[in-house]
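Entry type: protein chain
Record version: 2
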Amino acid sequence: MHTKKILIFVFLLTAGVILSAQTGTLKIFSEIKDITIYIDEVYVGRDMAEIKNVQKGSHYLKIKKDNIVIHDQIINIEEGSTSTIVLKDTPAIQEKMLESMKSEIAQYDSLKLSFDQNMNFYKGGRSISLTEFARTIGNFDIEKRIEQDKKLPTFSVELAARHSLRG
């Protein structure tokens, strides 16, 4: 029985050495901060990383920034060696980041509230009433004043809005 335990231990030890010998290391250096690194769709690290014990062979490397794939490629890991990837902040990567933000920018622009020096109110570039503006920003005091006195002169409503927006 004691011999079987020793044989099993030797077998497991040998298997571990063989498996570890079939791996390599991947080093990633990045000029871009806050990236996430995936190998074969599995998260393996952030920013500059040294990923050890990567099985030898071909793997899919994917690097994301703000959930946007900014770099992907097939890498080949050699047994017992180190593969290095250098990720530069290139115009192509910057373009990918900007392109992915177009819908976010459009959504922001469609919701953006503003008013001009003549107290004209806008939501996403579209002219809106003071009441709608007040509702949108959550300032119900202006809305109540308008409702209380429908005869309030426009100038007074504008002053109330200016005062309320400052404070």
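Comment: Confidence is low (pLDDT under 50) at residues 152-164.
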